[in-house]
TrEMBL record:
KW Ribosomal protein (keyword) present: no
Protein name per the record: L-amino acid N-acyltransferase YncA
UniProt-recorded Gene Ontology molecular function terms: acyltransferase activity, transferring groups other than amino-acyl groups
Biological source species: Lentibacillus halodurans
Source superkingdom: Bacteria
């Protein structure tokens, strides 16, 4: 399977082998016909999807990939808001459970929502273990969390009662500032085109579009 990269972090959630294709050649697509599994491929929006559709792939999402240079970050502030590297793991997971609705696996009609939820919960748990979660504090309350790795912003979850209050801009700008302090010249993230709230948030912070990819999935077999 020369054209398939295993994704064990997804396999544990779906009880089937999972892969990401490294290219869209006919040989690579034929491999997805021969082996049971769930497959992901990301392509530019201008690429002809006909070969993908012919081999059973289906569109699930468009990911917008904005970046922000350190000098362009817009900082916001509000009294009572702070960041913390110490937090209750279970409290972060409770926020995560209600926060993710725009993921590509939630949009995949072959993946039950409970499995998509499990995938994101496991991801947050992994980030906690690796010290890649920052808690967002409002006074003494944990209002949300920010997940990152290297120069990439991965996840942002805000407790429901704190949404639509303009607090996400403050939280996220402070977390980005802290991430920049690790020595990066720019940060990047990846946002579903369906997640308009997040797109507007990161645009307000100074992120600008650099790349866009379309995501296709294929299921050859069954998830159980």
């Amino acid at each position: 399977m020369n054209h398939l990269q295993e994704t064990p972090w997804d396999k544990r959630n779906f009880n089937i082998n999972t892969y990401e294709l490294t290219n869209t050649t006919e040989e690579a697509l034929q491999e997805t016909d021969r082996h049971k599994g769930h497959y992901t491929i990301k392509v530019t929006p201008l690429e002809n999807p006909e070969p993908l559709l012919r081999h059973g792939f289906y569109y699930v999402d468009t990911l917008i990939e904005p970046v922000c240079r350190k000098k362009d970050l817009n900082l916001f502030s509000e009294k009572g808001i702070s960041l913390s590297n110490t937090y209750d793991n279970d409290e972060i997971l409770e926020i995560a459970e209600e926060a993710f609705m725009h993921g590509r696996f939630h949009r995949d009609f072959n993946i039950p929502d409970v499995m998509a939820d499990k995938r994101y919960m496991n991801w947050v748990s992994d980030l906690q273990e690796n010290g890649q979660i920052i808690a967002l504090q409002y006074g003494n309350d944990t209002a949300g969390f920010y997940g990152f790795t290297g120069d990439k912003v991965l996840l942002l979850g805000i407790r429901e009662e704190y949404r639509s209050r303009g607090l996400a801009k403050v939280f996220t700008s402070l977390a980005c500032k802290e991430q920049f302090q690790a020595g990066y010249d720019e940060l990047r993230t990846s946002i579903s085109a369906a997640n308009v709230a997040s797109l507007n948030l990161f645009y307000a912070l100074g992120f600008r579009l650099r790349n866009t990819v379309d995501v296709y999935h294929k299921l050859n077999g069954e998830v159980t």
